[in-house]
Amino acid sequence: MNNIFLKYLLVFFVSMVPLIELRGAVPIGLSPLLGDALPLIPLYIVCIIGNMLPVPFIFFFARKVLIWGADKKFIGKFFTFCLEKGEKGGQKLQEKAGRGLYFALFLFVGIPLPGTGAWTGTLAASFLNMDFKKSILAIIAGVILAGVIMGLASFGVFGAFGAMFS
Predict the structure, then answer these.
(1) Which of 13, 28, 42, 96 is deepest in the core (most CB within 10 A)?
(2) Quick one: which of 52, 147, 135 has its CA closest to 93?
(3) Which of 18, 35, 52 finishes a domain?
């Protein structure tokens, strides 16, 4: 297998990892650290697919699995933590958004801050019993926005703006 295929495989799997997701995979793909930087458009496509692949499973099954595991001996604390994070994320989203809940979900997923992203946004949408199709559209749009922001950050655009205006 060649190096480029392995790098695509790496960014695909990194995009699927909770908390890291596409936000960590895009800089890896653009970095020359593990070989040449990957072409931007194919990199985004691979990262978006990797980031979105777990979303339907999270939406339909995560809450059930977390509730089931919350009282188990070894996994209970972690599952309870995830349940509480999903509930709090959903409540915050609903309080701040009001009628613009799907737009708020888009921004929640799209602004790359710690603890936000497709995993948490999907869990929150599930907890709020939001419409699946509308949620998926908001989440994929948010993932695309996060990818653009991380791409710009990786290219140093934000640092260049900071240097120009400071």
Answers:
(1) 28
(2) 135
(3) 52
73 φ/ψ angles, rounded to the nearest 5 degrees: -60, -55
At how many degrees (to 10) do helices 118-127 and 21-30 cross?
160
Per-residue confidence at 33, pLDDT binned at 50, 70, 90? confident
Is there a single domain that holds both residue 18 and residue 39?
A: yes
Distance from the first to the final alpha carbon of the chain = 46
Please give the residue range of the domain that contains residue 97.
55-151
Instruction: Report the C-alpha gap between 35 and 90 in whole angstroms.
Output: 40
> CB–CB of 29/147 below 8 Å?
no
Residue 163 lies in a domain: no
Residue 127 vs residues 67, 115, 123, 124, 152: alpha-carbon distances, Å: 12, 16, 6, 5, 32
Residue 31's contacts (CB-CB under 8 Å, 6 or more residues apart) are: 37, 154
Q: Per the structure, how many domains does the chain have?
A: 2
